[in-house]
Amino acid sequence: MKHYRENNPGSAGCIYLFHLVVALFTITLFFIPIQTSRAETSTSQIKEENIMTLTLTSPSFSHNDMIPSKYTCDNQDISPALSWSGVPDHTKSLVLIVDDPDAPDPAAPKMTWVHWVLYNIPPEVNGLPENVPANELPAGTLQGINDWKRTGYGGPCPPIGIHRYFHKLYALDTVLPDLKHPTKSALEKAMQGHIIMQTELIGRYQRGHHK
User: Fold this and answer.
1) Residue 3, SS3?
2) Cis ω on the peptide bond leading into residue 156 (within 30° of 0)?
3) CA 35 – CA 42 distance, rounded (Å)
4) For the sheet containing 111-121, what is the strand order?
5) In the prediction, which pLDDT does 53 show?
6) What pLDDT, on a 0 to 100 scale, did the predictor assign at position 208?
7) Residue 166: closest CA among 93, 70, 84, 67
């Protein structure tokens, strides 16, 4: 063997190169999972931040609490005060949609009834006052139509059972064009691909259950 190596000096170099390649390959395999794990962790953190940062609240009811009758067809039927925080810095506009997925009967829902549609709310705005009239909406805000075929707020008026009312806030990366009083579905179509972040506040209501 000694004679072979002495007469084949290239073989030692080949063996050394082979071991070097194996070592480098092993090191690469060791670091790839670490980098992948870090990337997955980073992505997970970003997604979690996107879900948790934007918040929507009301001084009139808590999440999953009963909505006072003042804001329903059983009483004054005015819009509740809403406030939000955590709007991303690169947001260009906000959208607010209020709807009821339990219509007409929560035991056998057949449709989602739309109560309020607002879009192009300026991102620097952090809420809406109670009973906000159309002419006092934040500058630039546009309205869509609800399922009473009119603009503005229409309060809960469930025919049977306890219904849920989803107050949904979306942060968009664009200012939408004037959609000429769109329906909720038309607005959602225009929003596709532009939603940065979203959140919701759920209130519940049952006729006869006055708070």
Assistant:
1) helix
2) no
3) 10
4) 65-66, 195-205, 163-172, 93-103, 111-121, 142-143
5) 87
6) 82
7) 67
CA–CA dist 159, 148 (Å, integer):
15
Distance CA 129, CA 152 (A): 14
Quick check: 28 pLDDT over 70? no
3-state secondary structure of 62: coil
Select from 154, 172, 26, 10 the least CA-distant residue to 94.
Answer: 172
How does residue 1 score in pLDDT terms, banded at 50, 70 and 90?
very low
Whether residue 211 lies inside any domain: the answer is no
**Which amino acid would we find at residue 109?**
P
Specify the length of the chain in residues.
211
Tens digits of per-residue pLDDT, 103-151?
A: 999 999 999 999 999 999 999 999 999 999 999 999 999 999 999 999 9
| Integer Cα distance of 32 and 49 in angstroms | 26
Candidates 75, 68, 58; CA nearest to 129 is 58
Sign of CA dihedral 29, 34, 39, 41: positive
- Statement: the pTM of the whole predicted model exceeds 0.85: no
Range of the domain at 45: 2-51
Same domain, yes or no: 47 and 61: no
110 and 36 housed in the same domain: no
- Return d(Cα 10, Cα 8) in angstroms, integer: 5
